[in-house]
Amino acid sequence: MLDAATAVSATPAAIRREDYRPPDWLVPEIALDFQLDAQATRVTARLTVRRQGAHGHPLRLDGGGGLLPVSVSIDGEELHDAWRIDGEQLVIDLPGDDHLVETIVQIAPAANSTLMGLYASNGLLCTQCEAEGFRRITFFPDRPDVLSRYTVRMEGDAALYPVLLSNGDQLDAGELPAGRHYALWRDPFPKPCYLFALVAGDLSANRDQFVTRSGRTIDLGIWVREADLPKTRHAMASLKASMAWDERVYGREYDLAVFNIVAVSDFNFGAMENKGLNIFNSRYILADPDTATDADFDAIAGVVAHEYFHNWSGNRVTCRDWFQLSLKEGFTVLRDQQFSADQGSPAVKRIEDVRALRAAQFPEDAGPLAHPIRPDSYIEISNFYTATIYNKGAEVIRMMKLILGDEGFRAGTDLYFDRHDGQAATCEDFIVAMEDASGADLTQFRLWYTQAGTPRVTASLTTDAPGGRARLRLSQSVPTTPGQPDKQPMPIPLKLSLLGAVSGAAMGGEHLVILDEAEKEVTFDGLTELPVLSINHGFSAPICLETDRSPADLAFLSAHDEDPFARYEAMQQLMLDTLVGAAKGGPVDHTPVIDAVRNTLTDPALDAAFVAEAVLLPSEAFIGDQLDAVDPEMVATVREALRADLGTELIDEWRDAYARAHANRYEYSPNAKGMRRLRSVALAFLAAAGAPDWAELAFAQYRASDNMTDRQGALGVLANNDAPEREAALADFYDRYAGDALVIDKWFTAQALSTRSGTVEAVEALARHPDFTIANPNRLRSLVGAFAVNQRAFHDPSGRGYRFVADMILGVDKLNPQAAARLVPSLGRWRRYEPGRASLMRDELERVLAVPGLSKDVFEQVSKSLG
Ligand code: ZN
């Protein structure tokens, strides 16, 4: 058990939103000088500081990671006693209102395993400053409402660091004695320090240009290791498409003469929108058909767009404080989702986004770490880069767009960008801009910013007779979440229609009903047929919906709904009702699902990508989310039973679909992608049916494919089952891609996600594989992150999976607290499981919490999960 006294005395303080105060000192200008060296980099910072308002407070500059000043000078004079260190801050008493403060520090990038601040990756030096990494580079007011103009001089060994990049434009560069050289960069746009970036190393650029709508030519560069240049083509095409899209859809043009992207292999998350110098995890840049799947290509386009879009939603208008994070992240996720929808199939993109929301955000919103999209407090801000801030944040702005209409919304974003250009803004500023531009009243809508928890909505339709009237009864309740016992009704926009039970046509078209009370009744007149309710079209609100629609109604909708998302959703609901009923021990009838899947598979009007999505069973995790006291074995058993029945009963249809979707030459197009997806889905159902030739088919697909999508699809099916071909394919895959880190990640993941028994032991062994390292976040995620979402293996009744993940958390925390903290939520959901597993999970959390010297990151996630 945990020693409560130790834990309490060790509790780091929470930062609260209501405590926000404007900065005492501003820093309009900063000049940085870097003497670059992997072991010891010297950083000289000259800050022009200005007192803001009438106060007698000293200048407080944040430091981190044990930063200490080598020297401190004020207005050109070195001080020896007029400064002090308070915690990690450098505190200086300043007599006047305007001063020049110069500090010199020495840092060690090669020894920095946190991947925050300045660090070394594969011979490169690079930075990551969001949220609070800049303080590890130099002493500075590390808060997003202090905006400065940056001048950056870098000097280093010309052979080790031939390329020297920073934000803005390069003003100067040249040779120096002793094989050294320098470069000078200047960013004319004032920015918060979290957007500062520097890269030094041996890089080559894929160069291109983009001409803006006002006729300015922008030089684009994607910087990678020379050997990787051929893999940057898709990222470059995506960048140019994003630039054109933001001009067309949001009226936003790029503002510097240069836009650079650098790919690095050690990176804590996806990518970073540093002004004019985005830095990316290499997995979101590098791709070719042989090494990257369709999903990888799509993700690259989405992340390149996301970071580019931040230039306006994040950089030109930034956040006042980190409680406003969703202001830039939620909005920018919506923008990248819209972009990707426009590039391919909007319906399939929406299905993918909703699946991601349900996989990551709904569980978060229902667990111990639930928080509103604008949180009220945090211990470590890095823990708040969550699916709630990002994905629910995007859903909330999507609802605003629906309520205001496309034109009202665009008027709102125009006003927001114009009004707050160059400022550090708040979520409230965004809402007010929306109201001012459209005339709408969003008073009640603000509850979406303050209340956590996924609303539960019930919908029930009653009818008298054809030609008569239908009554729709709606109700909502927002569940209790930590610190929020009482909730108020929110405005929930529901797009819906009533389909004629015979014709399948939407009677009276599509309606938008805003459910803004606990209960509401809506009536529909003049119906010519008995109606079937189709509701939450396009997932118009991020809710859990309960309806009293029969299996027959859902099957009908899955064949006739005009809204593709609702059509998909009807099938999902039918499957979910069947599986949840079975998991609760009710009677099992697979026939309606089998019939509905047959209809979908054989409907010639549907495209392959949609079919592949529609016939997929809900994930084990999502089924578990509908249950109390989850028994993952039971969930897996009922799901496997339905999969096997679907496989067996529809074996001819799966063989047909498999043959029809047969690949020709590789092509990256929505149609070709859909075919590949359907092919691997069909293959998995053939394996589930126990078709005698499943392994042969899978191995043949593995060997014959000319692209990673088909190869990985086959490998996944093989990895999940036992057959001689399994070992052969895994060994071949490993040999073929030895040394290609991003592909070897896939090799680890295929095994970590395996549904076959013995996976816990296999994963423990893989953690001892020479290619495994906890120091690289991609590799850590590929094995441990994947394992922690594998419902069967992670929840092995022995508790061995829990112990493995807890050991990893403790090991990684010493190197990289952010990466360690990300592994906590899987254990943190212990309350959702049956008592045996719940107590094993809780024991592991308590074991972690009892270890002295935990990072704030892990401490916050674990203590909240136990609290
Ligand atoms: Zn972002």
UniProtKB/TrEMBL annotation:
Q: Show the GO MF annotations.
A: alanyl aminopeptidase activity
Q: Mind telling me which InterPro entries this protein's record contains?
A: Aminopeptidase_N-like_N, Aminopeptidase_N-like_N_sf, PepN_Ig-like_sf, Peptidase_M1, Peptidase_M1_dom, Peptidase_M1_pepN, Peptidase_M1_pepN_C, Peptidase_M1_pepN_C_sf
Claim: Zinc is one of the keywords in the record: yes
Tell me which Pfam families the record gives. DUF3458, DUF3458_C, Peptidase_M1, Peptidase_M1_N
SUPFAM superfamilies, A to Z: Leukotriene A4 hydrolase N-terminal domain (SSF63737), Metalloproteases ('zincins'), catalytic domain (SSF55486)
Peptidase M1 alanyl aminopeptidase C-terminal domain ranges (all copies): 552-866
Domain Peptidase M1 membrane alanine aminopeptidase residue range list: 235-445
- Domain (Aminopeptidase N-like N-terminal): give its ranges: 88-195
- Keywords in alphabetical order: Aminopeptidase, Hydrolase, Metal-binding, Metalloprotease, Protease, Zinc
Keyword flag Thylakoid: no
Which catalysed reactions does the entry list for this protein? Release of an N-terminal amino acid, Xaa-|-Yaa- from a peptide, amide or arylamide. Xaa is preferably Ala, but may be most amino acids including Pro (slow action). When a terminal hydrophobic residue is followed by a prolyl residue, the two may be released as an intact Xaa-Pro dipeptide
Domain of life, per UniProt, equals: Bacteria
Which cofactor(s) does the record list?
A: Zn(2+)
Q: What EC identifiers does the entry list?
A: 3.4.11.2
Please state every residue range assigned to the domain named Peptidase M1 alanyl aminopeptidase Ig-like fold: 453-547
The EC class name is: hydrolase
Q: What family is this protein classified in? A: Belongs to the peptidase M1 family.
Q: Which PANTHER family match?
A: PUROMYCIN-SENSITIVE AMINOPEPTIDASE
| Protein known as | Aminopeptidase N
Organism, as annotated:
Sphingomonas natans
- Which gene is annotated as encoding this protein in its UniProt record? pepN
